[in-house]
Amino acid sequence: MQLRLVRSFMNRFEKYASQRSSESLPYTVKRHQSLLRRKLGSTDPMLQENKIVNLGLAIGTMEGIVIRPGETFSFWHLIGRTTADKGYLEGLLLSQGEVKTGIGGGLCQLANLLFWLALHTPLEIRERHHHSFDPFPDDRRVLPFGSGASVFYNYIDLRFFNPTPHTFQFKLRLTGEHLKGVVYCDHDLPEAYHIEERNHRFYRDGDKNFRENEIWKRTVNKETGQVIREALIIRNHAEVKYPIP
User: Which end of the chain, N or C, is less packed with Cβ atoms under 10 Å?
Assistant: First the structure.
C-alpha cells in the first residue's frame, strides 16, 4: 500500500500521454503479434481464456494512444486498477518467484507487446521491470528470452518517454488467435532499429538451474544500411523453474 501511495504522489509531476485517436498516423514503424494461447506448464487453460477477457478490457483503455513530444506513456496511468467491478477476471500472475492467480492476471502479455514495439522506436524506456525467474519452458516463442516486461499495479509500471520532435501512436487489437500491435509515427523515420539476442545459455549452479542472455539494439540508417550504433540494452539472469533442455 505504501509503495502505491508513493507512486500516486510522484505521478502528479509527469506529463502523461492521454489522448487517443481512431485515425492512424501515416507511417508504420513496427508491427508485432503474439499468440493468445500457449502451453504454460500444468496451469488451467481457463486462466488463459480469462486473460483474453482482461486483455480486451485493458486494450480498451489505451487503443490509439498518441505520445507527443515530451509526453510519457504509462501502462497503469491508462489502465488504472484492475478490479472485478470493471469486469476483470482471475488470471495468471508471476510474483516473488511463484506462479499465482489474481484479478486482472495476464496483462504482462500486453506489456510485453508494447515494450517490444517501443524498442523499435527512438522512445526512451524510462521504466521497465522483468521477472527474476523463468517459470515455463518455451512454447512457440518468437522473441528472445527476457525481452518482455513485468507489471503490477501501480508501482511496477512500464513507461516510455518521447524525447523526439515526432509523435508516436500505438494501435492494438485482439483476433481469435493473436494479440496484435502496431506503432505508427507522424514522420518517416530515417533510422530503423533491430533487436537481437546474444550469448544465450542454460547452466546449473548447485541444485538450481539458470538461464541468461543479452539483448542488443542496433540502429541502422535506412537509406544506406549502415549501422549507426549498437548498444547492450538488457542483460538477463533468471532462475529456471523447470527441467532444463
Answer: N
- Residue 224 φ/ψ, nearest 5 degrees: -100, -20
Tens digits of per-residue pLDDT, 149-181? 999 887 799 999 999 999 999 999 999 999 999
Domain boundaries, the chain: 2-188
Question: Exposed, middle or buried: residue 183 (CB in 10 Å: 0-12, 13-18, 19+)?
Answer: buried
The predicted pLDDT at position 140 comes to 67
